[in-house]
Amino acid sequence: MKKLINNPEDVVKEELKGIELAHPDLVKVFYDPDFIVRADAPVQGKVALVSGGGSGHEPMHGGFVGKGMLDAACPGAVFTSPTPDQMLEATKAVDGGAGVLHIVKNYTGDVMNFEMAADLARDEGIEVESVIVNDDVAVEDSTWTAGRRGVGLTVLMEKIVGAAAEEGRSLKECADLARKVNGQGRSMGMALTSCTVPHVGKPSFDLPEDEMEIGIGIHGEPGRHRIKLEPADKITEMLLEPVVEDLPYKEGDEVLLFVNSMGGTPLIELYIVYRKAVEILDAKGIKVVRNLIGPYITSLEMAGMSITLLKMDEDLKKLWDAPVKTAGMRWGI
Amino acid sequence: MAITRDDVLNWIKSYAQAIEENCEMLTDLDREIGDADHGANMRRGFRAVLEKLPSVEDKDIGTILKNVGMTLLSKVGGAAGPLYSTMFTKAGMTIGAKMEMDLNDWAQALEAGTTGIAKLGKALPNDKTMLDALYPALNALSAAMGNGASVGEALQKSADAAHEGMLATIPLVARKGRASYLGERSAGHQDPGATSTYLLIKTAAETWTDC
Ligand SMILES: Nc1ncnc2c1ncn2[C@@H]1O[C@H](COP(=O)(O)OP(=O)(O)OP(=O)(O)O)[C@@H](O)[C@H]1O
Ligand SMILES: [Mg+2]
Q1: DSSP for A227-296?
Q2: Fewest C-beta atoms under 10 Å: which of A47, A121, A266, B31?
Q3: Distance (Å) from the C-alpha of residue A259 to the closest C-alpha of chain B?
């Protein structure tokens, strides 16, 4: 294992310390239990957004704490869901009296821990709603599995619902909006290389030099199939087609196209993918009206990318364009 | 013919030791069908339990087990955190303020813990989870008790059944947790959670064999 770390057990704590030193204008960091809140929390009268998940997906979620996006983020150990005490303390720290929305990616661990935290917070008199993100079309959605994973759409949901909360919408309106975003967004990812969890020390899976994994999850969970490497245009097609078919996105639809790096893939390659994705969508009469390109929801140093589509309307466009000021996403301010 | 508070403490310590020794094996199993963290998660939790124990070791069995549950909830994370936490918390609530328990108390505690896990995780038998080690352990325990087996014998039967249940997860297709994403590809691998659960039942049998 070759990594820029010290003791593997200290990775998350040292990262948090770095964030605290780098962004005192944006966030406050708390330790034991660990969580990050926006610098001006709690914002009175505003619905507060809390999310969290395993570490190793930076900038998500800690990098999305700030005005116009999340009020708090709870980082777990690398690739492991955080614990209810973190979520409870974060919820209490950001509650401004208008209620708290938990944005939860659909993984068994995240769902169970957030469920327990929401119960504990309600016992303390805080109004809590939870929304599950499950946009990964690579996973067969059936009652016989844990269901689809929450992946790229999480980033878009946090931005859009964050803007709505900032605008003063109610807890119910924010939760409904989040569910609407979840209903209109779909993603799929792929990996060119594996990644290594620091305290494990060896790659999460083995991927031969000439193969790739289509439908990879953000923790290196295997996807639909493993096949020989193909050119970027072919890979883009392989990811985009199932995404388009799943909703389905139709001629005349306006979409946000999000091309995300898994951590190890450089921007130059993301733009090659973006170009092909726009071409495919154009041919189908689907119009890309907004985009996001870069590493926003990563899997440590994994090379690979994911494509997310979100069907847009006037309200979503307005909320997407609204000002945001976080370490990981910043515009309009 | 009783399992004392100190026996319970010794069991927890011996399980913590088993987790320490099998950490890499559990993580390797989770690498095959999950995300390679089960051993690390459990180790983080039981190291914290060992730190917590001195502050509660003069308390009753129920209090001790509930404290183990609370510590696991705040330290383990993942799916295993809430599940194992529920197991210890429910078991502790069932046994209550006793300084020693008999086999019947243990059977009820184990049953309450198992039911708690089933309720929280909504898994069914043969979904390839911890439950596939727990249900057989529970059934074997009550069968042995019905046959008038000694404490040591009954616990050994229970551990043997957990072991079989753990091995029986190998051909199963996972229907819950991260492994379910693999679909058919999850068959052929032993479930990490069932493995750590077998170790839990096994260390109980070993520690309490002369009770
Ligand atoms: N719904 C469930 N019910 C019972 N047991 C479950 C369930 N889901 C998972 N498990 C058990 O949990 C084990 C995995 O635990 P682990 O500590 O690796 O958590 P995880 O699933 O990786 O969590 P996270 O997704 O947050 O990383 C599985 O082997 C299985 O036995
Ligand atoms: Mg795991």
Answers
A1: EE---HHHHHHHHHHHHHHHTT--TT-EEEEEEEE-SSS-HHHHHHHHHHHHHHHHHTT-EEEEEEEE-S
A2: A266
A3: 23
pLDDT tens, B18-71?
Answer: 999 999 999 999 989 988 889 999 999 999 999 999 999 999 999 999 999 999
In tens, the pLDDT along B85-112 reads: 999 999 999 999 999 999 999 999 999 9
Residue A305 structure tokens: 């990318």
Give chain A's end-to-end CA distance (angstroms, integer). Answer: 40
B3-207 is classed CATH 1.25.40.340: yes
CA–CA distance, A171 with A40 (Å, rounded to integer): 19
What is the per-residue pLDDT across A35-93, written as a single tens digit (0 to 9) for each?
Answer: 999 999 999 999 999 999 999 999 999 999 999 999 999 999 999 999 999 999 999 99
List of domains in chain A: 13-183 (3.40.50.10440), 186-319 (3.30.1180.20)
Annotated active-site residue A57? The verdict is: yes
List the beta bridge partners of residue A211: A228
A85 contacts in chain B (CB < 8 Å): 73-74
Per residue in A200-229, pLDDT (tens digit) is: 888 988 899 999 999 999 988 777 789 999
Provide the residue type at A194 as one letter.
Answer: S
Helix (H, G, I), strand (E, B) or coil at A30: strand
Would you call A61 a catalytic residue per the annotation? no
Token pair of A300, please?
């440590």
Strand order in the sheet with A185-191: A225-228, A211-214, A185-191, A304-311, A254-261, A287-294
B34 lines ligand 1 (CB under 6 A): yes
Question: Residue type for B99, please?
Answer: M
The pLDDT tens digits of the residues spanning B108-154 come to 999 999 999 999 999 999 999 999 999 999 999 999 999 999 999 99
**End-to-end CA separation in angstroms for chain B:** 5
Percent above pLDDT 90 for chain A? 92
What are the Cα distances from residue A130, in Å, to A47, A63, A121? 13, 21, 12
- A23, A57, A61, A102: the catalytic one is A57
Cα(A185)–Cα(A311) distance, rounded to whole angstroms?
Answer: 6
- The ipTM assigned to this model is 0.84
Confidence of residue A140 (pLDDT cuts 50, 70, 90): confident
Contact, B75 vs B48, CB < 8 A? yes
Q: Which among A103, A108, A107 has a CA at the least distance from the CA of A90?
A: A103
